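User: Show me an example of a complex going from sequences to structure tokens.

Assistant: Sure. Here are the input components:
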Amino acid sequence: MTVTIKDIAKVAGVSYSTVSKALNDSPLVKGETKKKVAAIANEMGYAPNFAAQHLVSKKSKIIGLIWPTIERAVLATLVTKISNELNKTPYSMILSVDPLERSLETFKKYKVDGAILFEEDVNVKISNFSPPILVYGVSRNNSSDYPVIDPDHQQAILKAVTYLYKLGHRKIAYIGQIPQNDPRQIAKYEGFKKALKKFGIEELNKTSIINTEGLDWYDGYSAINKLLALDEPVTAIIGGSYDISAGIVRGLKDKQINIPEDISVISYDNIPQMENQEVPLTSVGVPVEQLAIKIVHTLIDLMENEQPLPQVTMMTPVLTERISCAPIKQYY
Amino acid sequence: MTVTIKDIAKVAGVSYSTVSKALNDSPLVKGETKKKVAAIANEMGYAPNFAAQHLVSKKSKIIGLIWPTIERAVLATLVTKISNELNKTPYSMILSVDPLERSLETFKKYKVDGAILFEEDVNVKISNFSPPILVYGVSRNNSSDYPVIDPDHQQAILKAVTYLYKLGHRKIAYIGQIPQNDPRQIAKYEGFKKALKKFGIEELNKTSIINTEGLDWYDGYSAINKLLALDEPVTAIIGGSYDISAGIVRGLKDKQINIPEDISVISYDNIPQMENQEVPLTSVGVPVEQLAIKIVHTLIDLMENEQPLPQVTMMTPVLTERISCAPIKQYY
DNA sequence: TTGTAGGCGTTATCAG
DNA sequence: CTGATAACGCCTACAA
């Protein structure tokens, strides 16, 4: 038997509507009464019944998030951060690991007030799902019907190159996956090329872009061999993802190459885990906390105000200095 | 405006209580009527309102699952499979990424009918949470107050050794983490030692247990060097986890050692991803699907029957043959 | 400032 | 077989 507002009402000696108001901090109730009711409620271990609240308010205060099957560290972290951020609001989150359509079906039954999708899912057409939808990461696919939050990959890599350039680096390698069909990876790659051009060092780096097969640690690890075979060795490396960079660090270590003394390393993906690498890695990217905050509050805005928000929001990346980069001595 | 049974009733020309019964396949409604109602409901895009159902039935049909922060491939897979399995039942799942207490708080508000916990969380004492709780993986900690489902790690390794022994292998290495405080890893280690003894090959393998620092790919990868430094080379390796084995495969490949021609490899963790390794790995462990099924249905039993089930259920591991093991030729 | 009454969408009970 | 009607826990006018 869970305790309801009626139970509280009996104990408090007031009507249950008063209890309801008191608990909702309504101005229609004396402060004194509020305190008393709150105390009793607390003591009795009262927890509001979401189902009942939902039924009457027509608001579920739930947002649905589709858990992408691809389990990269960044996304797992992002999901966690989103949940944490949501905990500071009246909203809760349900995670669905099903494919898009099935997930939306579930969301409909729960009458979620809004939903968050990841890029991967958005290609399917979404039919009769009315709550607001927010999409993370498809700025390239500008045909999206929904507001989009997207980190600015190009700018991130530009910041990385700028940072290295200012430290005196001129020979800089990019180790990352460059597939035809992944706009995010392509954006990083393009960002790198543009940055080289901006600083007038493209000629120097004709051969220092290494296209890995995938995004895994081994891709970074094995790229080190190719890198070392270069005629002119680089003094700095930009890793295209967390996992790739983890492999790079190991690869260099196995060759007795020290970071940052012998070579500087910057990783894409600005997540706390970078700190835990053998060498804490300086990294660029939009910090996941910021992403999470932006995503959550944009969605809440969408749900509560229905204002047409800017269609796509590019998030500004940040370079977080750790200890994997050093200046080039000879340039001093 | 979402469609309710009343809307359907109007269109169908029956009372809404009849609609309710029809939709629930009650024997109190003519088959004909049922069909008609179902057709209309479907056409109108009707989805039942969980909140309302919950309110009247006192059953939320939701189970809560606390998402362990430790993100190993196996657990991610397990969570997904559990969700898939739950989809075949009337139950839904909410995932919480919060710490135990906060998660339970949320679960209470949603009035979940049951909850699933992972080993990591269970040490905290749980107060005033009434729905049944099922714990995955703490058989060692027999002080658990809740029913436990646990894979039999020891037996898994025993099966691996047996399999290799029958193939003619006598020099077998175990590469895994052996920490003081992780009962699962210790169980595997103990299982290995017992198995060696059973087959009378402990003396042969005095030095072929490699205690890795961690459970990551690099731990497996770098263990290969130590392994190769052994006086008497082994003909088979058992990897203690999915990630470790992934590292082992890469490590061997880098040394031009072929699997299974030059060396046989078996991995712990029986998950589908084993198939995707460069060399599809023969593996031992309770298949995640089976675990998921067991977990889900045990919990459902718990929720619906309240029968006191056996306190701890050890799941029998299975060896899944792929192509990473070969017989020793000279024994033929 | 507090209490009363109606209703949210659904199921269950009991008449028809 | 079908249709009213009460009830689930809560919120919100509206009345007192």
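The lines above are the inputs; the final block is the predicted structure for all four components together. Chain A touches chain B at residues 2, 45, 47-52, 54-55, 60, 67, 69, 71, 73, 76, 79-80, 83-84, 87, 92, 94-98, 102, 105-106, 108-111, 128, 217-218, 221, 250 (CB under 8 Å).
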